[in-house]
Amino acid sequence: MPDYGHELVFGAFVTPDARSYHHTVALAKVADRLGLDVLGVQDHPYQSSFLDTWTFLSSLAFATSRIKLFPDVATLPLRPPSVLARSAATLDLLSDGRVELGLGAGAFPKGVVSMGGDARTPGEAVEALEEAIAVIRALWAAGERISFTGKHYSLVAAQPGPLPLHDIGIFVGSYKPRMLRLTGRLADGWIPTSSYASPSELVVMQQVIDDAAIAVGRAPADVRRWYNVMGSFTSREGGFLQGRASLWVEQLTELGLSQGVSGFIIAPGAAAESDLRRFAEEVVPAVREAVAKARGVTVPADLDAQLDLPPAERTTGKEPDLDEATRPRLAPHGERSDGPGSASAQMLIDVHNHLRSELEQLRGVVAEVATGHTSPAVARSLINRMSMRQNYWSLGAFCATYCRVLTIHHAIEDSRMFVDLRGRDASLAPVIERLSEEHEVIAGILTRLDAALVSMVADPDQLAVVDSEVERLAEVLLSHLDYEEEELLGPIAALGIQI
C-alpha cells in the first residue's frame, strides 16, 4: 500500500468502565492537554460494567476543549441509525465540531441478542450497515423530508437535521471481505484494531478496500486509515510496539509510509497517563517529522526553540500584506438598511462586535496576568506563585474558548455565507477569496498562540510570547473584520443573504 498523503492523526482509545470512570475522564483531559487529536471510546452496550458510550462521550465533550471524540465503534444493532444520526449531529454541535462516527456491524451477536437486538447472519449484518450509512447521511443533509425503504431500516417522510457543524466522517470497523468491500465503497475511513488485524494482515485487507473503492469510481485515498494499537514502553524489545519509544517511531512511521495508515490510536496500558505522555511527547513528534521528511514537506523549526526566540525573530509563516492598497474592492451595493437582507447585515455586525469586545477582554486579561507575573511579591511568595499558575490556566482556558469561537465563526463563513454570496454574485469572488486567505492567516496565529499558551504553563517566561501573539491577533483580526464589513455588508443586504 502506498502513502496516501493524509494528515497524520494521533489519539487514545479508552474503555468506559463504570468502576473507574473518574480515571478515564482524567485520562481524556490529559490527552486533550497533551495535544492528541482524537479520543475513541469503546461501545459494548451489553456489558453491564460499562457506561453508556454516547452519554459518556457527551460528558467528555464538556470535560475537554479541543480533542475530537468518537465511538470506537458504535454497535449498530443496538443503536437505530436514525437516532444515531441525530445523536452524532447533536454532539457535534455541542462540542464545536469535534465528533466523528465509528460504526460496527455488531462483533458480538450473543451480546446484541441478550439486549433485545436482532439476530443477524453475517450477510444481513453487512446489509444493515450499508442501509444505516444511507439513513445517517440522508439525515445529515439539508433538504426535504426523506423516505427510505430497506430490508432492515426505513424512513417515512422523516425530517433531516439537526445538521452537524462539520462533515462528520464515518469510519467502519471491518475485517472480513464483505465488510471490507463495503468500507471501500461507502466509508470515509477504516478503523481496525491491532489485536484483530496485525500489521502484517493489513496489506491484504487494504487491498480489498482499495479494489472495492476503484470498482465504484472512488480513489483509494478517499478512505482514511486509522489504527487502534496496543503496545507498551519497555527496555526489552519484542514485537509490534513492544520496546523503547524509538521502536514505536520506527514501526508507526513504516505503517504510515508503506501501508497508508494515517491515524494511530493507542490503548494505554496499566501506566495509562505515563503511556500517553510518552506517546505524545516522544513518539508523535518524531513520527510526524519522519513522515513529513519522507514526503518532502518542510518541517517547521522545533516549537520549543521557536518559542525561546524573541517574538521579532520567530518564524511567523506567510502572512499577506494587510495594507488597504492590496485588498480587492467592490462597487457599491446600495444602502444596507434598504435591502431584503438588512437584518442579516446587522447580525454580522453584532457578531463582529462581540468578537471585538471579547478580544479586548482577552488583551486585558493578558495585561493583568503580566502585571502579576512581574510583581516582586510573586517571586518571594510560594502562595503567590501558585496563584499565578492558576492565573495562567485561567488565561489559557479563556483564550482557548475565544480561539474556538473565532475558528467556528470563520468556518461557517467559509462553508455557508461566502458560498451563498459567490453563488448570487460572481463579482464578489476576489473579495471573498481574499477574506478566505485572511482566515487562514488568522488560523495560523491561533495555532501559534495555542502552542505558546501550552508552553507558558510549564515556563512562565513564555507569557511574553503569549502577549506578542495576542497583539498580533488583534492587529490582523480587527483589520480583517473592518474590511469584511466594508465590502460585504452591502451585498448581504442587497442580495438577501441569510446568516
* CATH-level-4 superfamily name of the largest domain: Luciferase-like domain
Instruction: Indicate the overall shape.
Output: globular
Briefly note the structural class of the backbone.
alpha/beta
Percent strand equals 5-15%
Ranges with pLDDT <50 over ≥5 residues?
299-321, 374-389
- Mean pLDDT, to the nearest integer, reads 86
Contiguous helical run count: 15
CATH topology (fold) name of the largest domain: TIM Barrel
First-to-last CA distance: 44 Å
Q: Domain count, please report it.
A: 2
The succession of helices and strands, N to C, reads EHEHEEHEHHEEEHEHEEEHEHHHHHHH
**Name of the top-level CATH class of the largest domain:** Alpha Beta
Helix proportion of residues, in percent?
A: 55-70%
Strand order of the largest sheet: 3-2-1-13-10-9-8-5-4
Q: What Rg, in angstroms, do the CA atoms define?
A: 25 Å
Question: How many DSSP-defined strands?
Answer: 13
What CATH architecture label of the largest domain applies?
A: Alpha-Beta Barrel
Largest sheet descriptor: 9 strands, parallel
